[in-house]
Amino acid sequence: MGSNETKMTEFILLGISDYPKAQKVMFALFFVSYLISLLGNSFMVGLIITSPVLHTPMYFFLSNLSFLDIFYTTSSVPQLLVNCFFLRPTISYIRCVIQMSIRLFLGIAECFLLAVMAYDCFAAVCNPLHYTLIMSRKFCIHLAVAFWTGAFVMSLIPLLIQPTQFCNYVINHFACELQALLKLSCSDIFLKEILLMVNSFVVLIAPFLFILLTYGRIAMSVLRIRSITGRRKAFSTCGSHLITVSIFYGSAISTYVLPKGKSSSNHDKFVSLFYGAVIPMFNPLIYSFRNKDVKGAFLRLLGKKISG
Ligand SMILES: *[C@@H]1O[C@H](CO)[C@@H](O)[C@H](O)[C@H]1NC(C)=O
């Protein structure tokens, strides 16, 4: 038996840093950011569900985003926190595959959801008179079913190409991600990497191009608006979404699409830390600070609590 052909049952997750001092700081940092994103996102979901003023397509999709972000951070950050206490934390093969599938599914769902939200903005700005007709309750539910199912199907494809034999058991990442796992494979991964690129084209670049086109159309119709208040209104509808999209796709594309050098694993690790732990924390903040409807709903909720 060749020693390099053994079927591995456990991996070592290198995590973010080996230095004990740095680990303490990391622990504090990620603990706080995890709490903020859990609280912020649960708060958004609760507020949107309980406030009739927020029962519009935009907020329904936003609550889908918050819902998604709760699970996305939970798929890696608690484990990252626990692993701060171990010198060489391990993860079993099965848990690794489960974690990888959940992260793939949620990541892809987020890509699709942001495209759906862009379409919603487009309908609101470019077609305000027919907005309620276009984004009917039924159509929104169809869209939601479509992107959740689409994400599920597209997350199965990379799973089929995941390696089963490994020559190395040390994952240079804080969570199991396909990219990091492929690097440990014994066999030639050229074909698999090509398949993965095709897949990430469908789930990442295609929605991104759609969003770019949509924002192009939005920008054109905003430029046609003469009044300053009209422009401001359009910007307040889509501004928050544009910020979220830029941060999310910026970091995702820099991981999955841009060519990389030797230090690529470290780069991947930090970028996925960014959208796994930091972005989910900012989404609720971006949407609530900039938004009159959310503030209004919140104050109304407070008022109800105080008077009731
Ligand atoms: C997701 O969006 C759909 C469609 O608008 C909505 O019916 C559903 O309640 C949302 N789900 C969550 C958890 O926010």
From TrEMBL:
Subcellular location: Cell membrane
UniProt main location, coarse: membrane
Endoplasmic reticulum keyword on record: no
Listed transmembrane segments: 25-49, 61-82, 139-161, 194-213, 234-258, 270-289
Domain G-protein coupled receptors family 1 profile: 40-287
Keyword entries, A-Z: Cell membrane, G-protein coupled receptor, Membrane, Olfaction, Receptor, Sensory transduction, Transducer, Transmembrane, Transmembrane helix
Gene3D superfamilies, per the entry: Rhodopsin 7-helix transmembrane proteins (1.20.1070.10)
PROSITE patterns tied to this protein: G_PROTEIN_RECEP_F1_2 (PS50262)
Domain of life, per lineage: Eukaryota
CDD domains: 7tmA_OR13H-like (cd15431)
Topology versus the membrane: Multi-pass membrane protein
InterPro entries cross-referenced by the UniProt entry: GPCR_Rhodpsn, GPCR_Rhodpsn_7TM, Olfact_rcpt
GO cellular component term, pick one: plasma membrane
The keyword Nucleotide-binding belongs to this UniProt entry's keyword annotation: no
Cited Pfam families: 7tm_4
A molecular function GO annotation: G protein-coupled receptor activity
Protein name (record): G-protein coupled receptors family 1 profile domain-containing protein
Source organism of this protein record: Salvator merianae (Argentine black and white tegu)
